[in-house]
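chain below, 327 aa
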Amino acid sequence: MFKAILIEKDDSGYRASVTDIAEEQLPEGDVTVEVAYSTVNYKDALAITGKAPVVRKFPMVPGIDLAGTVSQSDHPGIAVGETVLLNGWGVGETHWGGLSQKARLKGEWLIPLPAQFTPRQAMAIGTAGYTAMLCILALERHGVTPDQGDILVTGAAGGVGSVAVTLLSKLGYRVVAVTGREEESDYVTGLGAAEILNRSEFDSPGKPLGKERWAGAVDVVGSHVLANVCATTKYRGVVTACGLAGGMDFPTTVAPFILRGVTLAGVDSVMCPRKYRLEAWQRLAKDLNIAKLGTIANEIGLSDAIPFATDLLAGRIRGRVIVNVNR
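prediction:
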C-alpha cells in the first residue's frame, strides 16, 4: 500500500483526499517510480479543487510533475535505480500523476535527472521552471538579445514568473516584472528584476497600440494583460505566451502584428517533444542560479497539498510549492 491524493467524482460529488492505494491499482505503464517529490502547479490546483474540468477520467491522482527513482522497468532506455523526472504528458489529467508515493508511467515520458540537481531541486523548478526555460529558448530562437531592450515578465511572483525573472537576469537581460501583489516587490527584485510594475496597468482594455516598451515578454496571464503586452512591444519584438491565469480570452487587434511585426510565440510544455525537453533541462542546469531555488520554493507534505490548492488559485502563494510525498 502507498499514499496518494485521489480525486473522485460520483453521486456524492467531486472530492480529493489522501488515500491508501494498493500497488495493483496503478495504471498501465512500463516503468514504476518511487516518487520522492512532486509539486502543486496551477493546473494541479484546478484539478484538486474541481474549479475547471482538468481531470478527464476518474478516479485520478493529480500531479503534473514528479521526480524519483525507478523501481521497475520494462523500457529499454530506462534502468532500475535510475533517477528520473517527468513534466506533463497528460499525467494528472488522463493518467495518474505525481502526488503519490508511487507512479506507473510510460518510459517515453521520463527524462534522466540532470546531475546538477537533486530530486528536490528539480521539483523546485518543476513544470513552471521548465516552461520558463522554453519561453526563453523561444525568445532566443527569434533573435531577442539583451542589447535590444527590456524583457517583460507577467505574473512575476508566481512559479513560471519567478524562474523566468531569475534566468533572464542571469543571462544579462534587464527584466521588468509585473505583479498584482505589491507586497512581493522585494521578493521579485531579489530574484533579479530591475523594475516592478503593477498588474493594474495591464488588466483593463487598452489601445490597439501603445508606446513601444519591451523587446520581448514572457506572459502567463492571457486576456487583457497579454493584449496590452503585445500592444506595447517594440517593433519586431517577441511575446511568448504560456498561461491563462487571467483568462483564455485574447481581446486584441491585429495592429501589433501587422504594423510592428510583433511575433506572438505560443509555448506548450505538456506535449513538448523530448528533444526540446532535454534542451530546456540542460539549459536550466547550465543557466539557473541554484542558490535562488531556496528563495523561490517552499516545501509541504502530501496532506498539505489539498488546502494549498485553494490558496494557489486565490493568488496567495508565491514562487514554487514542492511536495514531499513521503511526509
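Residues 7 and 16 are 4 Å apart (CA to CA). The domain at 2-113+292-324 is CATH 3.90.180.10 (Quinone Oxidoreductase; Chain A, domain 1).
thats it, cya
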